[in-house]
Structures are given as C-alpha cells and as structure tokens.
Design a protein that fits this description.
Jelly Rolls, 4-stranded antiparallel beta sheet, 8 helices, 26% helix, binds 2-oxoglutaric acid, binds fe (ii) ion, metal-binding, DIOX_N, metal ion binding, oxidoreductase, Iron_ascorbate_oxido_reductase
C-alpha cells in the first residue's frame, strides 16, 4: 500500500513560530500555542517553520551525518551500540535494530526472531547527554572524525532549546497555569539525538515487503522533532482512515514535530501519538539504475523524554469529573522498558 495524497486525505498542518521569540506579543504567542495544540489534537504531526534553529546549523548536522555513515565499517564499529536494549547509544549496523509496535511480554526471543525475518535496511547512531551516565555515549574517537563529537554535543543542546519552546507552547495551548509545567519534567538530559541512514535498496524488496525501512510505529517520547533530507518516504497514518498513510513531504528546514506516547497518556488522549513509517520515496527521481535502487536517505530525529523517574500523571487541565484520567501513572523508565526491549 502506498501513501495516498488524494484531495480528501489528511493534511499535516504548518505552524509558523516566527512570532514566538517576541515575548512581548502575548496575543501572537497564544495564537501560535493554540495552533500547535490544535494540530496535535487533530493530526498528531505538524511542520514547524521559522523556529530558532538556523539553516546553516541544520545543513551542518546533515553534513556530519553523511560523514559519519560514510566512514568504513571498521571505524563505525569503534563506537558500537552495546548489546541489548538498555543502553541505546552508538552505532547500530544494518539489521541490528528492528522498529516495532510489539510490546514486551517477558518471554520475547521467538517474537524478536520472527520480527527480524524482514530486516530494517538502515543504520543509526544514537547520542545523548554526557551527563546521563546510565546511558553512556559511545563516541567515535576524535582522531577518526575530528569535530564530530563537539558539533553533535552542541547540536543536542541547540535542539533542546527549540524543544523547550515547543513544550512551553504546548503548556500554554493546553491552558496550563504554569507555562513551565511540561518543561519541569524534562531536565534535557533524557533526550536522544538519532542520526539515521536508510541505505539504498531495490524498490521491489520494499514493495514485496522482503525488506523495510522503518515499519509503522508510534514514538515513546513525549515529543519528537524530526529533520529530514529531500529524499522523502516518511508517511503518517491518516487519523480518520486508519491503515492509510499520507506523505510527510520534506519542507526544507522545517521541523516535523510529533506527539509521542508519553504526551498522549499525559494529556489523557487529548493529544495524539500518531503512527508513522518510512517507505518508498514518492518521487521517481529518487531511484537509480535498473533495480530502481532507492536513494540513500538521511534523517535526524530528536526524541524528548522526561527524566527516567518522572511520573507521567494526567495533566490537570486535561481531566475533569466527566473525563477522568484514563491511564495509571507510569514513570518514563517503566514505559521505555515496555517499548524499547523488543527493538534490540
Ligand atoms: O526517518 C524518519 O523520517 C522517521 C524515523 C522515525 O520515525 C523514528 O526514528 O522514530
Ligand atoms: Fe518515529
């Protein structure tokens, strides 16, 4: 099934953040916040344009991403993803990770094997805060790629700055008295910066489902920000037509922002964590050669997560006597375990 972009299909809204930094203009800020919340309620995905991350910084982030994946395997393997799912850092080679919506039940080896019969043809490199010692970064040695660690460390915190804007806007748009309500649960150290490279693969392998890029899933973050190159292939489930997907067409420099499961629970389902996947690029010129090899695609998601011990308990403005809290409180660590353990 390919992405459908017919006239009646879901549109991913665009929210312009240009007035956000003018803290004097409260009306414009409120309007932006309300637009953002509306998009998160109806679609769960939104393009944010005119945010505070400058174009040259984003271009450089993609430059480093290309460079790191271009290294010989032997160099990439100087920072391998540690075995198992507990530490989610470093380089994951093609086939290591399998994205899935399957929840762990405890005895998972058979399920994991079955899921891997269709491998994800991608490699990734995961980075966190150096302060977060339970998730130790696995840095490629500086002599192999001088400047990579310094750039990515700075980029991680630049992303968090925009992330704070988004969390503040969401709190305002949700009518929370305390604008910092959501930010306070995030120190910033629990986030994850992920560099992704989708390798060239014959289109037919994806069409016949012998291989996948990134199967349909929801994120288990509170909020995800995604930067994508111009290849295309990201698809978002149409909320009014479950099972059908629309393309999240690349917009240069825009952040594709989406609600993760934790924010959906937190908001008592008022904000949607929408399923998404990466499949074939929609444009014909993204393929090469007789096998219609897909062009290599790069993307950079930034997952924001509350600190591991933070308790995700219904946001006060999202419940009422008529609409009591639907979910039991859960810690970030508890939810993460349920979801992450099937991936590695
Ligand atoms: O590469 C993309 O465009 C999406 C990746 C994604 O959904 C994820 O890593 O959770
Ligand atoms: Fe995702």
């Amino acid at each position: 099934m390919s992405a459908e972009d017919g006239p009646a299909s879901m549109k991913i809204p665009i929210v312009d953040f240009s007035s956000w930094n003018n803290t004097q203009d409260k009306t414009a800020r409120l309007r932006t916040a309300k637009e953002l919340v509306k998009a998160c309620q109806t679609v769960g995905f939104v393009y944010i344009i005119n945010h505070s991350l400058p174009e040259p910084v984003l271009d450089e982030a993609f430059e480093w991403t290309r460079r790191v994946f271009k290294l010989p395997m032997e160099d990439k393997m100087k920072a391998p993803h540690p075995p198992g799912w507990e530490v989610h850092r470093g380089y994951s080679w093609p086939g290591l990770e399998k994205v899935t919506q399957t929840i762990s039940t405890g005895d998972d080896e058979e399920t994991k094997k079955k899921l891997r019969e269709v491998p994800d043809v991608k490699e990734s490199y995961d980075i966190g805060s150096d302060v977060f010692t339970s998730q130790p970064n696995q840095w490629i040695p500086d002599e192999v790629l001088p400047g990579f660690r310094a750039f990515m460390t700075k980029f991680y915190w630049d992303c968090w700055k925009v992330g704070e804007d988004i969390l503040r806007a969401l709190a305002i748009g949700l009518n929370l008295e305390d604008e910092s309500y959501l930010i306070k649960k995030h120190s910033g150290h629990g986030n994850q910066l992920r560099l992704l490279s989708y390798l060239p693969v014959p289109a037919e392998d994806l069409e016949q489902e012998r291989a996948s890029r990134c199967p349909a899933h929801t994120d288990w973050s509170s909020v995800t920000m995604l930067f994508q190159d111009d290849c295309g292939g990201l698809e978002v489930e149409d909320v009014s037509r479950p099972g059908t997907f629309v393309s999240a067409t690349p917009i240069k420099n825009a952040i594709v922002m989406n609600v993760g499961d934790l924010l959906q629970r937190w908001s008592n389902d008022r904000l949607r964590s929408t399923s998404h996947r990466v499949r074939l690029p929609p444009l014909a010129d993204r393929y090469e050669g007789p096998n219609r090899m897909t062009r290599q695609r790069f993307s950079i998601p930034y997952f924001m997560s509350p600190d591991p011990d933070s308790v995700i308990d219904c946001i006060p403005s999202c419940m009422s006597e008529k609409e009591p809290a639907k979910y039991k409180p859960i810690t970030q660590a508890g939810y993460n375990k349920m979801r992450a353990s099937m991936h590695y």
